[in-house]
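In response to a reviewer's request, we include the raw inputs and outputs for one of the modeled complexes. The three entities were modeled together in a single run.
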Amino acid sequence: MSNCLNVKKRTIFLYMLPGIFWYSFIILIPICLAVYYGMYDWSGGISMTFTGLDNYIEVLKDPVFIQSLKNNIFLTVVCLIGQIGIAFALAMMLNGRHIRFKGLHRTVSYFPAVLSAVVIGFIWSMIYDYNYGLINTFLEAIGKSELTQAWLNNKNLVLLLAALPLIWQYIGYYLIIIMSALSSVDPQIFEMAEIDGATGFKRAIHITLPLIKNSLIVCVTLCIAGNMKIFDHIYVMTQGGPGAASSVMAMYAYKTSFLSFKMGYGSAMSIVILIICLVLVGASQGLMQYFTREKEGRA
Amino acid sequence: MKEIGRKIGIAAQNIILLLFSISFIFPAIWLFYSSMKDKAEFYQSPIALPKSVNFDHYISILKSSNITSWILNTVRNSVTTLFFTILLGFIIGYFLSRHRFRGRRFLYGYFLLGMLVPVHALMVPMYVLFTKLGLHNHWYTLILPYTALSLPIAVFLVESYVQSIPVEIEEAAAIDGSSIHRTLFQIIMPVCKPILVAIGIIQFFYIWNEFTFGLILVDSEALMTVPVGLTLFRGRFSTDYPRMMTAMIISMLPAVLLYFGFSKQIMKGMVSGAVKG
Amino acid sequence: MKRKTKFTAVLLAGIMLLSACGSSGNDSEGNEAKNDSGNTDELVVSHYFLEEERESDTVADSYLAMVEKWQEDNPDITLTQQTMSQSDYSTKIQAQAAVNELPDVFMVKGSWIDNFVENDTMAPMNAYLEADENSDKFREGVFDAATRDGNIYGMPNQLSITSIVYYNEELWKLAGYDVFPDNFEDIKKAAEKFNEQGISAIALGNSEKWPAESCILSTLGDRYTGSDWTNSIIDADGEAKFTDDNFVKALEELQSLATAGVFNPDFNTITETQAVEYYGQGKAATVISGHWGVASISAFADEAVLGNTKVAILPAADGGQADSISGGSGWYFAVNKNLSGDKLEKAMDFCLQTTGYDMNVYGAENHGIIGAAMVDVDKSQFPQLTQDFITLVDEVTFTPVYDLLMDGAVIETMNTGLQDLLNDSVSAQDLAAQIQAEQDKVQK
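The model returned the following structure tokens for the whole complex.
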């Protein structure tokens, strides 16, 4: 392609340089610093003791960290289904011919993504509130008041309950991306499929999915990345509680650095989180490429 | 029979969409009308509509705080960041997509890395970096990390989008004797408008609501951003929910107004799609 | 070619626009003033006392009033206050400490002093304290947490009394108790009666994790272990361990209170302030809060509840004594080590004037605050609750507050684990072991 466009390599390089430089400054240097700090026993300030890879190994053995990692993975899976799954279903519906108020639905769906984590956390804390919350009020109204509880204090449910606001907030986000992808698909393809007798569901799976494959891979990657480093929502709603039941990696790293004053250890943890994310995203991308390539092969 | 089944199917879809949409918008509405109650009224019945429309909390908060300067700061940060993000993100995304060169995959992955960075955990190195270089506490301080952290998504989305634009466009332009500079900004960029708009929307609200950098990298009150300023209302002893909600609404308002103001633009952008055939 | 120039023009315009925006928002005096030892015109102080809270936080009101006075007395100095909520403050000050970019005057928690001293960030105050005529009016021991090797590094800002039992006399009478019970069994029995009526015996708001430890365990623990044990932990000399029987018994007692339904069911999901509100609305018969409870209850509680509120202290452990509560000075104002000359003088003066004896006088006379310094004040001018509070505090001795003095990581583990303990999802022994594991890592 570069041949037919005759663009000099140097021009490309110069164009991209400012962006690359800016980005490296903010991202690369702190990461390198974090790697460096991670090799010390450091509590902030002047005195630092070199400990090599001790911190890194410690992180991998830390039970709270492992629990946090599990929580992150759980959240990611729930959000993959909840956010992208629902977004895809809604996008398919919105693409249909007999749907009313399409503009309204589209506009309103992204609205929660516009709100800050503090607001989201507040709203949903009110929903889960023991005395005034929507859930308990509803349960009492239908006569099931023995089921009322302090929802966010439930060790087993808290993570799922924390996932709900996440899903609710970001459905619109993925909806935009998917709809943007759908809009670049030739509508004639859909019409032909309908003529051929394909029903809605089949149409979705066999025709639409492959066509917007790239965008879906984008969505999955964004979802995994976003949920691996989630912080704000959990911090506002549960602070990781009760105990460490809803603790997530980024929050644990933050606490370690700023509440427990173990900045060396906290830095090592951030690097480990980064590496884990890289591995997961890389693996998921690889998997998706593999599966979709297979499908094309068959066609 | 099939006809009825189809009709029910359509009705069901409409209802589902309606329910979702109501759920998306209702909490904000609830936040708004609750902010007009006073504390006692709110505790009595959190969901009911307020007895009277009163803006007491609003007046009190607007008078007693610097909320307008916070909003100005945040707007300035947002606009500037978006400008650079869209510009630089577009350039990089385009070249990564269209051109094969050594290190392309590496560069792509390199930008992808930015999306995985656990920001809170890197607060300390970031702070060290900024203070050692004297970059903190200026009007441009926050623009630096905001742009850098917005680039990954911008590059990612542009790269993917550009792949679906037919090469014929550039080929035609080349035949017409257009230089790469002209092609890039005058021909390709407009075609990418939908995705650039999407990036703008997504990142605008990220910047608007960003809290951590605003807290750590900026000290002076004159430069405070909205989310940080909001926390001044959530002192240890505050359980006046309606008042807190008022502060939330005020902080959301500019962003929300912008959002609904531009919604037509946004939708148009998404629907018009790319040039095909 | 045309395209290129147009593009460049746009870029230049953008830059000019940015500069224009810049002039409206730039205010970066922070950089210049901080490490400049000679510049006497500016002083930067950071703390967590919010204007917004003055009505309901008497300590905030007292401190801010003193700051205002100092500004009047020193009009030629530009004082910049960096204020934020207490939890944000902790984050911010740590970041600043990490790069030695602390403000001129800042607040420091007792448990951070070791760190800060190790990194040599605070200026010793001994000389200035000796020169101040009011220094001897301070209570014994309030400077201790900020003293290392004879050097005093901080001015105590408040006397944090964290464990006062505020109870509704009326409700307890109806349950059969004229005064707050002096043993835990009675509390549990009463809880049954209260729960039947749909209220809780004790309101607890532990969503931020510190109340259970700071307001209850610090005192409850002491009932079982005695202060020597606590001080040994604080000194980290290895003698006392969290796994000692005494401490484990304390944990078990705390857990038994929770399992007996003494607390409100949503204790881990509401904040301490909300718990005080519960009490104030009559939804709970008691709330265990700190000295700030007096102000909160006086400001927010229903008239009837306020009228019936009496104060007490936590009961004794089986066969033990109950004459102490957790309290002490935990927050200090310190001066940046990097200052010198005139600026140092001004900063020290600021410290001593705003958080010194005068502040204690203001607090005592206006609000009945019991501060780090002893002030004679006529109690009778204050509301009944404040008077009762002062009387109570005069009669007890103080034991260390855990989270003001123990190592941060240890406290963090304790606080997080207490949520589980109260939920009955971890045993007292296991939790003690976890906390001890953290304590083992503390080196002195």
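As requested, we also summarize the result in words. DSSP finds 20 helices and 14 strands in chain C. Residues 39-158+330-375 of chain C form a domain with the D-Maltodextrin-Binding Protein; domain 2 fold (CATH 3.40.190.10).
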